[in-house]
Amino acid sequence: MSELGWAVGAVRVTPVVERATAIPAAAFFPSATDTALAAHDWLQPWALTPAGEVRIVIQALGVESAGRRILVDTCVGQRPLPEPFSHLADDGGFLTALTAAGFGPDEVDVVVCTHLHFDHVGWNTTWDGTGWVPTFPNARYVLARTEYEHWRDAGPEAWAAQSAVSFADAVLPLVDAGVVDLVDPDHAITDDVALMPTPGHSPGHVSVRIRSGGAEACITGDCVHSPVQLAEPDWFTRVDHDRARSSATRHALVAECCDRDVLVIGTHFPPPTAGHLVTGPGGGVRFRPLA
């Protein structure tokens, strides 16, 4: 999938997909009844299946800005995972695809984790035979301070119960290696690329805002999992940490981006992944993917 990509002013964004899958919508969004989904059949078959499943991908977004290569999220990785996640472990092809896209392990300058759930930190580290070491040896790993401190203090039982099952081997070894920068949720990485606070799905969740040459884009992370949530901002997921806050974050994102030339790049949206929010028939919001 790395042949896709988008220019945002002088900034280039390239998606690299680790895995595509589909999840029963009602298992993910408690509000996704058959009747509710029927109102969004315009998302079929791209983002919703006729059988009522949500199509998602697990992917990284490579960002080139000011001579720096920034990797946003690092997917699942190869580590063994407990059920119900065991089938998501990568077979090793992701690093090959990442290298082909120009973001090989030695080429990345900055790794940004939008949050610390297992499907966003997995390739932070790799096993070298004796321990977990940084996969990207020349990179600084940028984590929102609030997010890191929440999971650090939560402890192993919470990691296992709340989708942070990889914290011990994909995050803590980075801290031990001295390669982590704990930052504020609006931290600037370059003049054109900065974090933006989008809490709710997790306590310190951040998205990535790009502004360059009059163009603007947002890499969502998990404040939005599916374009149906942009039409239905109150549709929280079963794994959202603070459901009311996650809904408020989506409402704010829709208000900021709808009917404006802001490219919305959905971290879990299936290809073409990027598009614009527009007012649809009857006044509702629709996500219009790029052709």
Assembly type of the chains comes to single chain
- Cα gyration radius (Å): 18 Å
The profile of the biggest β sheet is: 7 strands, mixed
> Which spans have pLDDT < 50 for at least 5 consecutive residues?
none
Estimate the global geometry from the Cα principal axes.
globular
The counted number of beta strands is: 15
Determine the N-to-C terminus distance.
Answer: 15 Å
Q: Helical element count?
A: 9
CATH domain fold name: Metallo-beta-lactamase, Chain A
CATH superfamily: Ribonuclease Z/Hydroxyacylglutathione hydrolase-like
For the biggest β-sheet, the strand order reads: 1-2-3-4-5-8-9
Helix and strand sequence: EEHHEEHEEEEHHHHEEEEHHEEE
Q: What percentage of amino acids are in beta strands?
A: 25-35%
How much helix, percentage-wise, in residues? 10-25%
Can you characterise this structure?
The longest helix has 15 residues, at 243-257. Helices cover 21% and strands 29% of the residues. The chain is built from nine helices and 15 strands. It has a seven-stranded mixed sheet. A six-stranded mixed sheet has the order 10-11-12-13-14-15. Strands 6-7 form a two-stranded antiparallel ribbon. It has one domain (6-289): 4-Layer Sandwich (Metallo-beta-lactamase, Chain A).
Give a concise summary.
With 291 residues, this protein is α/β, with parallel strands linked by helices.
Task: Name its key features.
291 residues; Metallo-beta-lactamase, Chain A; 6-stranded mixed sheet; 9 helices; 15 strands
